[in-house]
Amino acid sequence: MARELGWIRQFQAPRTDSLPPLIVFPHAGAGASAYRVFAKRMSQDFDTVIVQYPGRQDRLAEPAAQTLPELAVGAFEAFRGSARDTGAPLTVFGHSMGSIAAFEFVRLAEAAGLAVRLLVVSAAAAPHRIAELPGHPTEDEELLDHMSALNGTGADVMASREVMRMALPVLKADYRAFDAYSCGPDVRVAAPLLVLGGDDDPFVGPRDLYGWEQSTTAAIEVNLFAGGHFYIDENIEGVAEVLAGQALAR
């Protein structure tokens, strides 16, 4: 069971009390619990928390965010008011849409003077390219086809089209926020970037991943794993090793 309500969830206690913080931003349509297995593995190396967006799971009664910066602001304000805001350098991870929310979170953190050890973005085009991308489907059947092509929000959910249909309202809200996002090409963070992706992702290719070079004034490393848009499901150990190796070496 999640330890606290609001924006922050922790499903797995850290291995020790001295581990550095890791903040995880889920993909579109997902709740924090979709990252329970990922968080369990990452908690070997980090004090891992997952952002719970409004409009889903135990926040179902709340309206979904209208913009991605709104998600970042909500998460940032919740983090600043929590016991985890100890001054320890942050590692911030986002998958797909969550990568953009994570980027905006890091912008807020750096503006507030917080140290960011590493920004990890996964299966996403760079912020300055989002406005160039085609919009997501808005009709139910087309959106269901799109979800099937992504092979997410997790293989267990995607196995049933009727189960997928239940996720449509929040997915539509997230995609509206994503499609409305824009970011200038000169907007950068100071944190180094680790960029991850699947080598068989039908929507995000190597060009998209390397485009993140323009989003930081620091170093960038790109790593590809076998798999599609949700390659993490089959590569949790490998992702964890790369992420921890990059973050904890800084």
TrEMBL record:
Annotated GO biological process: lipid biosynthetic process
Residue ranges annotated for the Thioesterase domain, each copy included: 21-243
Catalytic reaction equation(s): a fatty acyl-CoA + H2O = a fatty acid + CoA + H(+)
InterPro entries linked: AB_hydrolase_fold (IPR029058), TEII (IPR012223), Thioesterase (IPR001031)
Matching Pfam families: Thioesterase (PF00975)
Sequence similarity: Belongs to the thioesterase family.
Protein name stated in the entry: Thioesterase TesA
